[in-house]
User: What shape does this take?
Amino acid sequence: METAEFLVNTALFQGISAQEACSMLGCLGAREKSYLAGEYVFHMGDTTRSLGVVLEGRVRVENVDVWGNVSIVGFAESGEIFAELYATIPDEPLMVDVVANEFTRVLFLETAKVMTTCPKSCGHHNQIARNLNLIAARKNLMLTRRIFHGAPKSIRGKVLSYLSFVSSQAGSSEFDIPFNRQQLADYLGVDRSALSAELSRMQREGLITTKRSHFVLHDPSR
Assistant: This one.
C-alpha cells in the first residue's frame, strides 16, 4: 500500500486512487528492483517489455559511441518513468544506456498490460493508458526542444538557445539549470573545455553571470 500511495502522486497514476493503484499492481506485473550508483538498469542493445517508474533516486539516460564519447539524453527523477517507448515495441533494442545516478529503486510495469484492458476490466485502467500517452507526448516535445537547442552551429548559439528556453520556463532571468558543466556539454553535444571557454567569454562580455549551475541573463543592450 505504501508503494501505491507513492504512485498516485506520479503523472502515470494521476486520477487514480491509492486503493485502485494497489489493486492494479498485480494486473500490471509489478516488480521492484534496487540499484547502486553507477549500476546499469539497461544496456544499449537490451530489449524490455517493461517501463520503469523511479520510486527513489535518479536514473541517467545516455548514449556512448564506440570511442567512449558520452551524450546525455536525459534523466528520470523520483516519480518519473523511463524506457516506455522501447517497451511498447516488442524486441526493439535500446539505443541508450540507463544508469543509476545514485542509490535508486525502480518499479517495473509490463507496458503491454498498461496499454490494454486487464481481464478484470478495471474502470481505472483506461486512465493509466491515457496518462502514459500524455507522458510520451510530453517527452517527444522535450526531444524536439533539444533538437532546437542543438541546431545552431556555434557553441554560443546552442548555449543562448538553451538558456533562453530555461529562462522562459522559469519566468525569470535568474535560474538554476539541472546540469553541471560536463552534463551541459553532453546535452548540447559540445566539448566541455570549449563550452567553459565560451561561457567565460560570455560572462566577460556581460551577457551572463554564472556560477556552477546558477545563471543570470543580462540585457545585451546594457
